[in-house]
Specification:
Layout lengths: L6 H15 L8 E6 L6 H12 L2 E6 L2 H11 L7 E5 L1 H9 L3 E2 L4 H6 L15 E13 L24 E2 L6 H14 L1 H13 L9 H10 L4 E5 H9 L3 H9 L1 E3 L10 E9 L5 H10 L3 H11 L2 E2 L9 H5 L12 H4 L3 H11 L3
Parallel strand pairs: 1-2, 1-3, 6-7
Antiparallel strand pairs: 3-9, 4-9, 5-7, 5-8, 5-9, 5-10
Length: 351
């Protein structure tokens, strides 16, 4: 049985542990962080890290594409130590461009499952997932039966013709899901599945995940794909209209009887030319501590990647908690399918 994380206690424990284990930090007290995470709640993690280690964080924020462009422009002169990005596909793309360096860490190896990290090499692992979000299905229970949307594969069933909403198929959140399903089904069946979904659209793909949930609630469609934390945000919203939206829809974690629900990650990596490499590794390890993992869940409606961390988030509990079956296929492997899947989407007309 997992123990509920009490944040003040965990902070004290983390401070004591890192104070003992990081004697080399007296010489280097800076960490340059490039982050695509724009969540104010993460500031608590950064402040606690600095309090724990004495390492000051200099943060640069941009979207994922902006960070990649900046790293490429800066080259070997880049001051970046750690890169935080959202989505395994984006991390894998940056990794393929040689923007990360592998690290070896027994703490990360013990805390984070191999399927939520880049494939290991002789020199270590290049990127690690620190929080996850489930790719779930939202549906209108007045128009669709739960058993008809229990799997991703059913989204291509002709009985859902004219009922499906989605954001762009080319968005990384969808690409990661689609690449996972194609990996499971094989190329021919996978492309046929994408073709079936394209044929079931209630309207052309548009908007973000929250827009898809709202479309189900308004009757524009009856089924939609969304990340779990968007639904959680609506549940936790102070706006009555947002909670009303969630009163009208139901959320299902697909494939519980088979391969499990697809989860994607927000993760981090040590920059290829990190001038403060040791501090970067310590920060990466800190993000896997119970304190940081609980903070991701409590404040930003994400799921921990580290084992043994129980969440205490009413919205996620209302969505079924975190004890659902997850797809264990390695995200690092799935990311290699992205180009192939994009070509499939183009062929079947899934915009």
């Amino acid at each position: 049985m997992r123990t509920l994380v009490k944040l003040p206690i965990v902070i004290a424990t983390a401070v004591a542990a890192f104070a003992v284990q990081s004697p080399a930090m007296a010489q280097e007290k800076v960490l340059n962080l490039y982050s695509a995470r724009h969540y104010q709640s993460d500031q608590v993690i950064y402040d606690t890290f600095t309090k724990t280690t004495g390492i000051k964080i200099n943060r640069v924020e941009a979207d994922d594409a902006g960070i990649v462009a900046r790293l490429r422009a800066e080259g070997a002169a880049s001051p970046a130590d750690v890169i935080l990005m959202v989505d395994a596909a984006r991390m894998a793309s940056a990794d393929s461009q040689g923007l990360f360096q592998p690290i070896k860490s027994a703490k990360l190896d013990a805390a984070i499952g191999a399927n939520l990290r880049a494939a290991p090499t002789a020199n270590g692992v290049t990127w690690t997932g620190f929080s996850t979000r489930a790719r779930v299905i939202a549906f209108d229970p007045l128009r669709v039966k739960a058993e008809d949307v229990a799997t991703y594969e059913q989204l291509a069933d002709p009985k859902l013709k004219g009922l499906l909403c989605s954001r762009s198929g080319s968005h990384p959140y969808n690409l990661s899901l689609f690449a996972t399903v194609v990996e499971r089904l094989g190329d021919a069946k996978g492309e046929n599945w994408l073709k079936g979904m394209a044929a079931n659209m209630a309207r052309a793909p548009k908007g973000g995940d929250t827009d898809q949930i709202r479309a189900v609630a308004s009757g524009e469609c009856a089924v939609a794909i969304t990340n779990s934390y968007y639904a959680a945000r609506l549940l936790r919203s102070s706006k009555s209209e947002d909670r009303t939206v969630m009163d009208r829809v139901r959320i299902v974690h697909p494939n519980q009887a088979t391969t499990g629900t697809h989860v994607n990650i927000a993760g981090g990596a040590v920059a290829r030319h990190a001038p403060n490499r040791d501090n970067a590794v310590v920060f990466m390890e800190f993000l896997a501590t119970p304190f940081a993992q609980a903070q991701f869940a409590e404040s930003n409606n994400e799921y921990p990647t580290a084992a043994g961390v129980q969440i205490n988030n009413p919205a996620l509990t209302a969505l079924g908690g975190d004890n659902f079956k997850r797809d264990t296929i390695a995200l690092g492997v799935v990311a290699k399918n992205m180009t192939k899947v994009q070509q499939m989407l183009d062929r079947v007309g899934f915009k």
